[in-house]
């Protein structure tokens, strides 16, 4: 097991370098960012040249990448154009986004899995049909529609919540944005759990458990659910990374100063340092989340072993 | 217990992965009357908050609150009035002697002296400080020594600046510029305290100035709380207890927060909300002209566009654009059709005049005739370039093209050419890669007709992106700058503008308005000609 984890960690190294290099090149292709700093007028050439030198933009791309990576390993992610170190931006943005993601994941697990279990056990009944229909609606409505609608109804019309989240972003203010962020994944989790449960309900080990005379509750939680969760866990695991990086729309709607917002601003201002820095961390999150998912398989299903 | 071992490993990896810290900032909760706090929408300033390094409106808002310069532009008329300057004297429009009023201090108690100005200007001009507005000092003698076009600076300070005593300093310009004192209300000319030079990082994290407000707390990227400075010596004291600027991720969200009653002032009503603004805010919506003009620049470096009969072609294109209709339907009247190359905020005395005349009014038949006389659209199709990331430029460029295509009766005459990001767009513009007309927006730095003409159309001027060049225009601009009488100078500038019109060096489109909405909690809200709210006059009910 320990060896497996180490092997997986080592595998992350080439993935990490490849991903960062790709991002670095992509941001670079967008062209020289200095011209955008002077508004609708030309930067004077001397200042532009100095700024280019300061941000290392006058060097060839491979050298820029090498320097950047060298700095990253000493904990220096560079400086954004407004003079703020990228690590400071991360220190502000990641806690907020992690909180938002946690809220979203909790919604996915609690609501998604419960609905999935209920519908899976009552396949074909009215409740199953109505939940299926509901998930279909949620999946087909884009996030920004749900977000703006809830913001308008709950925030402006009924005044239940504040439409904009404050910079500190406490958990209480993140509940509605978290629900919006989770909505689509939540629907998928419901459907995945439902199918999986419905399938395993007819499995031999469930029949055996029932035949042994185990209470229904125990059959469902210990035998049926535990085995049915593997595809769901895979989905939720990969979703962590997607939720953290893909919250751009939700964060903009609800004024959440998190990772999505910083990425958006970095891209608009063509700020290589911000974009590459944040994406690097997101790549790490993805990798670690995937590792955790694989390890969880073994916890859920004793038949799966790693060596 | 194999399961438990697995769980342990998983938990370990999780612990490694998640090491997060949380942090919070302060919160404000209004208050009312003279001590009430105004909350206002904000965007993260693009550059560090230094006076000579701030070239956009978000940073400009802060500077307008914490700094006062030699001159201050009247929020209503735009007229440059003496602020810290007691008098600015000159006999030859080149040598200026500036005397400061006494009694002014920075909010940290330090006196504002002639040295505060000279040091600040030398800092702003010097190449090594990377100040994006350095060129504002370009007219001062010795600028080319501290800020050469390329290579290293040859001097530490500009030879044209000399401190005489605590309250007096002299400025020598490298050429005559009679209206120069009027430019001194621009934020780049603000004085700086010693703290700025002694501990630069500390100053940047909490700027200290000499304006009616002081910075109480500043959480970069999220919020700045400004408090009224009770010891402020000027006459334009703050009418409220302070202003809290809140960064919004999106101006739509700020607008929603305003309608929900959580925000007092939004100074940029999003285009998508303009239809609802009357219903949502009623008379708490402001829509006034700002010193911003949008034009179509022409690539004169491209032979196809610089033909002997090219002026007819350009005039034809101008006449094919239905400005009235586009400003009404696309911009909901937040733009005004242009009739010259300046801005209505200058007022008639300042030089605003219908100089474009018929050439800016829509006439399909005449347009068709002029374009044909001018040799037709180069290559049969012209592509109007714009940046697609901000400012919803696509809508109006498509509308302009439709208008041109309809007028010329040719569906292929004009198409839009979107460029992904603003930076890339500006790159293509400044490296002269344009093959057709391209969008240009100009926000004035100071309300002078000179600022709308010289930087944009003078031969090889800093923002002459189309590279239009006309010796007569240049001659008239030089003449106007040397003219000591303001009224006469304005008239000569207008003659220069007529030269620009006769050759149609750029096609004027419309003047942009500033828009703002505010809550019932506040009153006496106005926008100045730079479309920045006049914060110090806002009253909290």
Top keywords for this entry?
heterodimer, A: 307 residues, mainly alpha, MetI-like fold, 12 helices, 75% helix, B: 541 residues, alpha+beta, five-stranded antiparallel beta sheet, four-stranded mixed beta sheet, 30% helix, globular, disordered N terminus, MetI-like_sf (chain A), transmembrane helix (chain A), transport (chain A), membrane (chain A)
Gyration radius over CA of chain B: 26 Å
Task: Based on Cα principal axes, name the global outline of chain B.
Answer: globular
Q: What is the CATH architecture assignment of the domain at 94-268 in chain A?
A: Orthogonal Bundle
Separation of the first and last Cα atoms of chain B: 69 Å
Question: What is the H/E order of chain A?
Answer: HHHHHHHHHHHH
Fraction of residues in H or I helices of chain B = 25-40%
**What is the helix content of chain A?**
over 70%
Determine the CATH topology of the domain at 94-268 in chain A: MetI-like fold
Provide a count of the helices of chain A: 12
Q: Low-confidence parts of chain A lasting 5 or more residues at pLDDT below 50?
A: none
Query: What's the total count of β strands of chain B?
Result: 19
Please, how many helices of chain B?
17
* Backbone structural class of chain B: alpha+beta
- Name the largest protein-protein interface in this structure: A-B, 74 and 77 residues
Strand content of chain B: 15-25%
The best one-word shape of chain A is globular
Domain ABC transmembrane type-1 (chain A): 94-297
InterPro entries (chain A): BPD_transp_1_N, MetI-like, MetI-like_sf
Family (chain A): Belongs to the binding-protein-dependent transport system permease family.
Main location (chain A): membrane
